[in-house]
Inverse folding.
């Protein structure tokens, strides 16, 4: 019985992950944010808590070179949740955000297979 319950939980978790779209957010520090860059690890933890409050889970965070200072990958029930998070985190004045929907390789293959 315990093994069956575990298998059911794994299946439900996989279904939930499949139902949660992934978004990629590119962040750039503002003048305020870069002046206090040494505080950014603490701010990233605070951002994780803020994300949870609006139904967003930060899955991965990367410091990057190039056009963006940071890139985060988030899962959320809808784009509305991600928009709330982007507005809330940007309103703190340390970063500006750009957000795009991201599809996994499996999701991409499925989309392609359904083309007319």
């Amino acid at each position: 019985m315990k093994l069956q319950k575990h298998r059911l939980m794994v299946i439900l978790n996989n279904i939930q992950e499949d139902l949660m779209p992934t978004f990629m957010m590119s962040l750039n520090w503002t003048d305020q944010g870069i002046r206090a860059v040494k505080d950014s690890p603490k701010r990233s933890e605070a951002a994780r808590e803020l994300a949870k409050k609006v139904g967003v889970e930060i899955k991965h965070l990367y410091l990057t070179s190039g056009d963006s200072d940071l890139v985060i990958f988030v899962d959320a029930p809808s784009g509305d949740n991600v928009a709330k998070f982007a507005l809330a985190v940007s309103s703190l004045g340390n970063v500006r955000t750009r957000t795009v929907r991201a599809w996994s390789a499996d999701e991409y293959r499925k989309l392609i297979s359904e083309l007319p």
